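re the bet — no i am not wrong, look at it urself. input seq straight from the record:
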Amino acid sequence: MQKIKNRNLVAVDLFAGAGGFSLAAIKAGFAIDFAIENDKYAVQTYQNNILKLEGGKHASVLDSSILDYDPVKLQKARFKSINCDLLLGGPPCQGFSTHRILNAGVNDPRNELVLAYFDFVKALKPRVFLMENVPGILWPRHQEYLDKFYQEGKKAGFHVFQPVILDARDFGVPQRRKRVFILGVRDKTDISKVQWPPQPTHADPKKLGSGLLPWVSCKAAFRSTPADDENNIHMNHGYELIEAFKRTPLNGGSRKDSGRILNCHKDHDGHKDVYGRIDPEQPAPTMTTACINPSKGRFVHPTEHHGITVRQAARIQTFPDSYSFCGGLTAAGKQIGNAVPVELGKYLLEYIKAHIFDFKDFKDEQQMHIKQSGYERHD
């Protein structure tokens, strides 16, 4: 394939959510042609943010289930004179979540959406596709979905790299977040150009190797927020819970320290992070769809006696403060928890853009990423 000149690279985002992957793509130099998302609040968030950006101003947002669209018809309607360069997507992960026990999720209909994603791969024929999901998708009980995905990829002429688990904190994101990424490349001549996955840029400060920087703490997420920020909101807690937070040590603790032991916790020693405070000197815990609820994990403010705000959760997911989330507290938390961390997505897509699409030297992009994460590399 020859180097692409004089046009933006074009991307499509399936299961687009609030737009984390789309924002990452735009930051990496792609333009969004269309996105599919059926959560009404996520659609509003996407429209209010992505469509205002240069790389998103011509995008269409299709607001029904991916199963309601014929990918062949969309290909003919949207890509008459241009090609789809990149297909993104993170099918709903709840059916594959590691929080589910025994065989829960094996027959979850949401798992079929992974295969629906590949129907779009076959129709749009992107030069590259990148899919994100939770590590639970690799569990043996879900093997049939993954096997079929790879079979379909081979039939369509794609080289599908083995799934890799990446931790966001290893790429400068202030959060412990492990997710599976699956890369597919259409043209044989492109396969040799990329070593997948890219090497981490950050590591445990106690185990730093040559050229690696220490993990980024989440301290900056708790800086002051303008009073007029509509996402500067957190859960309202009753007197008993506030008193429990007061008993929880600053920058740490757990449900045992808080003294709040619910009936569901009495007979086991798990869920220790529940009602714990976030340590601002470390990467934050994984922002889940319930990240604004202290009863669902270590989501209490480091020093204040309440759960973290929507804005703080968004910062941990590396959304800019200019990005606003619609639908209120619970809906916003869900959107943030489902998103791909913006800066992780940007880094991966810059790497793909440089190595497969033959754009500028990736070292320049890498240095910019290092600086934006709060550190500079000293080789």
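see?? Residues 1-6, 94-106, 375-379 have pLDDT under 50 and may be disordered. told u. also The beta strands are 9-14, 30-36, 60-62, 86-89, 128-133, 159-160, 164-167, 178-185, 202-203, 213-214. so pay up
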